[in-house]
């Protein structure tokens, strides 16, 4: 007796979707590369708690944290890397790409040219975003991907870190003001600004921005962050520190838990005996504010202040300024 092959792609859409729903996730993903019918029948069948891209010079990975039918979490990696010759191929858009798959890893053959690898990553991203219903997104990249499907299809990230990038002012505004990001890190990344510091909205929950000679301090005074960590700001003044404390003393920074910034480099160069003289003017300005100093160290490094509503904050002021709401 001869058994006819089971042609999944010929099933009606609803029946095909029911069969796919019972398949192993990696088997299902493999089949989506074989048939457009299966790909679109698989729309939203797999759920991902988190979908993250890591895009470095020698590492391009999509990591997916998902759940199986028993609600047990598992992790899948889709990586563009070296693949042994004579492997099977999958069709990704208009190209055939050698691949090697295991239960939790799907490796696609990398190219010599980084632009080609980014293009493969873009196509893979578009493919997987059709299949997965995603709760959170994450990105860690050394490449400018603002024109890629990653940014075109994703407007909210739980974590986003950019390394070693020069950004346009437009991209910086998109990143800081338009997108929704829980935790943003800019490492050796800054906008190209010719006319000096500019104002930007600072609204993400946690922001680590590195050295920020491109940012006006007025942006800090209007921030909505819970935690803001800055590197060196060489144009900051004693008045800026005073204004920061004044805004908090008057009930501002409703979301703030912590703020950190380094003092200008020239201040440190002049401070031969580490006396931190620049803070004296700032401390003197507290007298004109509606707050009370409830605790202070003898050397002046630390002060605990309290405003009229009873809320307290701790200031640690040396060659950096750290403000922590208690």
From TrEMBL:
What PROSITE patterns does its record include? FBOX
Query: Please, which domain of life does this record's source organism belong to?
Result: Eukaryota
**InterPro entries, per the entry:** F-box_dom (IPR001810), F-box_Sdz-33 (IPR012885)
The F-box domain extends over 5-56
Give the Pfam families listed for this entry.
FBA_2
Query: Matching PANTHER family, A to Z?
Result: F-BOX ASSOCIATED DOMAIN-CONTAINING PROTEIN-RELATED, F-BOX-CONTAINING HYPOTHETICAL PROTEIN C.ELEGANS
Q: What name has this protein been given in UniProt?
A: F-box domain-containing protein
């Amino acid at each position: 007796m001869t058994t006819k092959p089971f042609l999944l792609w010929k099933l009606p859409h609803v029946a095909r979707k029911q069969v796919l729903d019972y398949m192993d996730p990696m088997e299902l993903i493999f089949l989506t590369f074989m048939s457009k019918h299966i790909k679109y029948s698989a729309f939203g069948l797999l759920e991902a708690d988190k979908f993250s891209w890591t895009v470095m010079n020698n590492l391009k990975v999509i990591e997916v944290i998902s759940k199986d039918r028993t609600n047990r979490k598992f992790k899948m990696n889709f990586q563009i890397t070296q693949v042994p010759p004579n492997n099977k191929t999958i069709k990704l858009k208009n190209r055939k790409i050698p691949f090697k798959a295991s239960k939790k890893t799907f490796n696609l053959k990398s190219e010599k040219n980084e632009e080609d690898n980014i293009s493969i990553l873009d196509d893979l991203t578009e493919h997987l975003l059709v299949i997965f219903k995603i709760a959170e997104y994450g990105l860690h990249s050394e490449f400018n991907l603002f024109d890629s499907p990653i940014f075109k299809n994703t407007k909210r990230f739980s974590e986003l870190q950019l390394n070693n990038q020069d950004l346009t002012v437009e991209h910086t505004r998109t990143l800081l003001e338009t997108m929704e990001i829980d935790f943003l890190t800019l490492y050796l990344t800054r906008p190209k600004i010719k006319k000096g510091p500019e104002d930007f909205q600072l609204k993400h929950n946690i922001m680590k921005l590195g050295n920020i000679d491109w940012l006006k301090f007025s942006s800090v005074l209007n921030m909505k962050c819970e935690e803001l960590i800055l590197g060196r700001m060489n144009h900051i003044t004693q008045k800026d520190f005073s204004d920061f404390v004044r805004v908090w003393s008057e009930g501002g920074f409703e979301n703030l838990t912590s703020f950190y910034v380094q003092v200008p480099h020239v201040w440190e160069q002049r401070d031969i005996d580490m006396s931190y003289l620049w803070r004296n003017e700032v401390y003197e300005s507290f007298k004109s504010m509606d707050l009370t100093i409830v605790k202070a160290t003898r050397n002046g490094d630390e002060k605990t202040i309290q405003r009229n509503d009873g809320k307290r904050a701790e200031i640690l002021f040396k060659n950096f300024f750290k403000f922590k709401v208690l």
